[in-house]
Design goal:
The protein has 161 residues and is mainly beta. The protein has two domains: 47 residues, no CATH class; 83 residues, RNA polymerase II/Efflux pump adaptor protein, barrel-sandwich hybrid domain (OB fold (Dihydrolipoamide Acetyltransferase, E2P)), CATH 2.40.50.100. The protein has no helices and 14 strands. The strands form three sheets. A five-stranded antiparallel sheet has the order 1-2-3-4-5, with no helix packed on it. A five-stranded antiparallel sheet has the order 6-7-14-12-9, with no helix packed on it. Strands 11-10-8-13 form a four-stranded antiparallel sheet, with no helix packed on it. A hairpin with a 2-residue loop joins strand 3 and strand 4. It is elongated, with a radius of gyration of 17 Å. The N terminus is likely disordered.
């Protein structure tokens, strides 16, 4: 497997199917090779750099393949943001730039409703509300976020049992 920084002929770069956070900067990456072989391996993500046993890759150098249609659930973008159910905070898992916001502080939001459009890995991605509630705080368009940066804070309604 080749990647940026290798000398000689350009080699095929595996396509990234998904990233799943395991702990802090440790992720499980699922990749697909040119031959169609799926690989699962643990990688370290620091800002936009993916460190693998095969070398270091910039996230933008790995072609992202959309494997599942985005649903109205926040789990579709769980590789991008992390939601803390206790604090109502949505935090970035990767470096990203806020392109557009769909809701402002004080506005009501429904679970699955788009609250922002972000850019990461040279791709635009929607971020949806993980719950019904009220937007308390949201990052402004044009602002960049590092991993751990606050994208939004939502006061979620308690679910009826």
């Amino acid at each position: 497997m080749g990647g940026p920084g290798h000398r000689g002929e350009e080699r095929y770069t595996p396509k990234l199917l998904r990233l799943r956070r395991l702990h802090d900067n440790l992720y499980e990456a699922e990749l697909i090779t040119e031959q169609g072989e799926r690989l699962r391996l643990q990688v370290i993500v620091n800002n936009d750099i993916v460190e693998t046993p095969f070398g270091r890759y910039h996230l933008s150098s790995i072609g992202l393949v959309e494997t599942e249609p985005t649903s109205t659930s926040s789990s579709a973008e769980s590789w991008l943001v992390e939601f803390n159910t206790h604090t109502g905070e949505l935090r970035a898992k990767l470096s990203m730039k806020i392109v557009e916001i769909s809701k402002k502080p004080g506005e009501r939001v429904k679970e699955g409703e788009r609250i922002a459009v972000i850019e990461t890995m040279k791709m635009l991605n929607d971020v949806h509300s993980p719950c019904n509630g009220e937007i308390i705080e949201i990052t402004q368009p044009g602002q960049g976020l590092s991993p751990g940066g606050l994208l939004a804070k939502i006061k979620c309604e308690k679910k009826q049992e």
